[in-house]
Each structure stands twice: as structure tokens, then as C-alpha cells.
Write a structure and sequence with these properties.
The chain is an alpha+beta fold. The protein is about 35% helix and about 25% strand. The chain has helices at about 10-25, 40-45, 70-80; strands at about 1-5, 30, 55, 60-65.
Length: about 80
Amino acid sequence: MTFTVYTKSNCQQCVATKRLFDRRGVPYTTVDLDADASQIEVVKALGFTSAPVVTVTDGTRTIDSWGGYRPDKIKELASIN
């Protein structure tokens, strides 16, 4: 599985999300929405309007996604990763 965290500058929930991924040892890719505005459309297409947004893909499709700081979801990912 691949984990992507869409973030924005000065976003405390984004920092907390990445920090918890790091602490739990879950590898992820960061997409900075401020640096690549075209990725905002990806986030909007998923139905989100604020950061952070986390997507979980199985290589071909998105199997889960959520917005905001969700330690419960990250803990779940760490247990199966």
C-alpha cells in the first residue's frame, strides 16, 4: 500500500499527521499543495476542501482517504503495514 499526505504550509494538523506517521514507522509521500497547485484538484475530486488529506492506494486505486488529523486511522495503518 502507498500512503500520501497532502499538506499546506503553516498547517498544524498537517505537521501532527506527518509526525505521527513518522513515529509509527509508516512510510508516506508528502504532496505540498502550496508548491503544486494542480494537486488541489486531486484533493477536491476526493471531496475534501482542507488539509491534511491522506490517501491510501493499493497501486491502482484509492482504497481509503480522510481529511484532518486522525490518529486512529494512522494507528490502524501502522498495525497492518
